[in-house]
Amino acid sequence: MEQPKELSFIIEGLDLENTPEEEVRKIFNEELKKYGYQLIDETAVIRANKISSMRGLDINNHEEVEMYVFAKQLPQNKVFFSIKIL
Asked: Residue 64: what pLDDT?
């Protein structure tokens, strides 16, 4: 079994509390694609200071992966994401 992978990044201009879930998911997915992954879970919900489990796809080899995403709202409409990919 492969070792879990970890990603972390900050998205600027995002307020988790006042942005619709679909928009948050879309913005998160666009950033995730830069790292070779994309969401396939249409019902994924990202909340501040919570760990969310969601299904994703490794774009390079088309394997389905499980992602555990932690999001922390930072000042000035920035969100820090820490992701474990299994």
From this structure: 96
